[in-house]
Amino acid sequence: MSFGRRISQRLRLKMSLTRLIFRSWYYFRLGYGTYVAFPLGFASTMIIIYELTLKDIPPLQQYFPHLYVFGIVALLIIGPVSIYAGLYHMRRTGAYSAEASVLTESNPYMYKAIPGKEREVIIPLMVLTARGLAKVMEQQQSITLEEKREFQAVLDKANSLLDGASVGLSRDKQKP
Questions:
Q1: What's the pTM?
Q2: Which residue among 38, 97, 118, 140 is least crowded, i.e. fewest CB within 10 A of its CB?
Q3: How far apart are CA 59 and CA 49, in angstroms?
């Protein structure tokens, strides 16, 4: 086996190991935050509130004689309040739009063609359609030289997308 081939194999192994580590980290955070930490945090909050406040107040103890009764009532109240708060967050505050904007800017596929149907079908079909339209407009002599230049610039960008390059200014390429 040649020296170059060994280095190439090691590099591929290192890249797939790095990818596996980052994907595992993402799945861990998603699973832990959603299915472990959230239910445990909710349960411990209910227990703490019940044990430290409601248990020592006799008038409330007649309504909540057991922790499970308090938990059910809390869920019936907190559920709709949380749903409304989430809806309000998405529709009425600038926080959600800012979050979506940051996620969009950090997504590499906002500046590159998405592998699969976009790169293999949609963009090539759009380029072919645009070229056909340009031929028709040239035959009818209804396209100006400036429009032809703009058209070619857009086609060049589409071709660079098909080659795997970026278009536009990604977050990494913007000047500070």
A1: 0.54
A2: 140
A3: 16
